[in-house]
Amino acid sequence: MKRHFPLPTPQELALTGVTVLWGGTFLVLHIAMQHCGPRFFVFVRFMMAAVFVGLLAGRKLLDINRREIRAGALIGVALATGYVLQSAGLRDITSSRSAFITALYVPLVPIFQWAFLRKAPHLMSWLGIALAFDGLVCLAGPAALSLSFGHGDLLTLCAAIAIAAEIVLISLYARGVDSLRVTVMQLFAGSLFAGLMMPVSGEAIPAFSWVWFSCALALGGLSALVQVVMNWAQKSVSPTKAAVIYAGEPVWGGLVGWLAGDHLPPATLLGAALIVGGVLTSELRPQWLEALLGRSSQTLTKND
């Protein structure tokens, strides 16, 4: 009998694992932002991460080629841009509104996938994206849906576009590069880009603090792990499916908060359920739908 609900692959499980880790980083990032600026923190965090992955890659770095340098630079700039713009936008808007606008990367990814990779997402993937996005809206709360659109909103929207571009770029280059070498390059490029943005934005180098240093060290190690896993896993996982998995980040963050004693309101529970439902829906391939899509494809072929 044909299985209509396939078991998750090791790559999908790995992406889920790093998403769980992501969900527990908000507190560390919040603490770090009390002691340094966002661009400086991204600069130090990514440079530490690049060193970690470089030590893991070892002599393999000597074989880095032009494609890996180009891919790493593009992904790294997109990665750093997303982090920096989201942090900058938080100075003017609430965290709930930032979460809602940033969540726009979820529906943007399948559009970018279709436009740049020429690969249309499956209908069930679209449904999963819709459910996941609705869940993120529930988590953001009604205040995030106001129609006003200011400077902070624009910065955060650009961050969402950068995040979507990063996910698609990883899939675009993943199969033709070495995961470790391209990860070193993208982390180094992202760090350099964030550092160059400091004088442009007027952000000063903070006084040394063991607080921001410890936070950067911890999140640098996490960034190293996350980016290596993403570059490896997205060799076989589509950008759209990856985006649905990443949408679970606030769910895991909420779970960590709940375990720490936070109260979860009904809207949060509904949002979490919708996101989980979106992940499951994106995996479904009903036999009747496959047959219908097959007949539609045959009809289009005959008409052509």
Automatic annotation (TrEMBL):
The chain crosses the membrane at residues 12-33, 39-57, 69-86, 98-117, 124-148, 154-173, 180-198, 210-230. It is found in: Cell membrane. It is a multi-pass membrane protein. The keyword Cell membrane applies. It comes from the Bacteria. Keywords: Cell membrane, Membrane, Transmembrane, Transmembrane helix. This is DMT family transporter. It comes from Gluconobacter vitians.
